[in-house]
Amino acid sequence: MAKKQKKQQKQAGTGGTPATVALAAAGAQYTVHAYEHDPAHPSYGEEAAQAMGVSPDRVFKTLVAEVDGDLTVAVVPVAGTLDLKALATAVSGKRAVMADPAAAERTTGYVRGGISPLGQRKKLRTVLDDSASSHATICVSAGRRGLEVELAPGDLARLTAAVLAPIGRE
Questions:
Q1: DSSP H or E stretch at residue 20
Q2: pTM for this structure?
Q3: What's the angle, vertex CA 28, arms to CA 23 and CA 31, rounded to 5?
Q4: Is there a contact between 109 and 120 (Cβ–Cβ < 8 Å)?
Q5: pLDDT for res 6
Q6: What is the Cα–Cα distance from 143 to 124, expressed in whole angstroms?
Q7: CA 126/CA 134 separation, integer angstroms
Q8: Secondary structure (DSSP) of 50-92
Q9: Closest Cα to residue 120, out of 140, 143, 138?
Q10: How far is it, in rounded angstroms, from Cα 37 to Cα 146?
Q11: Hey, is 129 helix, strand or coil?
Q12: What is the rounded distance in angstroms from the CA atom of residue 130 to the CA atom of residue 111?
């Protein structure tokens, strides 16, 4: 693990999450952002954008859906919503519904509001909204509430074997 990234994790008080461990193991360039999570805030993603002072179109939320019975990860900007029909189409499926939160937590190894597309317990197929490619870097959950990682969208797509598709809507 790079010295700078170890220092970032120590400063963030993480000691590493499966997401940051996966990033470090892959040699990816990333920055950890920690902030005080407010359990009363109505939106994890919007809270992260506000706390970090980052535009909500650069902060992406990780959602778990079921496409034709298979769990699938969708990564979309917090400023919008997931288009379930577009998600199904992106993975050549017919029907998508949001996954049961308990199943999402059990399968990914993360808690809701802290699910990261990286370092999941079971690797799920992943679709990244194509709007990510219009940014040099984006932020996604680092694996717990109040912790984000900023990285290049290409690195996120490569590390998760993500398909890029227009799955988000405003």
A1: helix 18-26
A2: 0.89
A3: 80
A4: yes
A5: 46
A6: 15
A7: 19
A8: HHHT--TTTBEEEEEEEETTEEEEEEEETTSEE-HHHHHHHTT
A9: 143
A10: 5
A11: strand
A12: 25
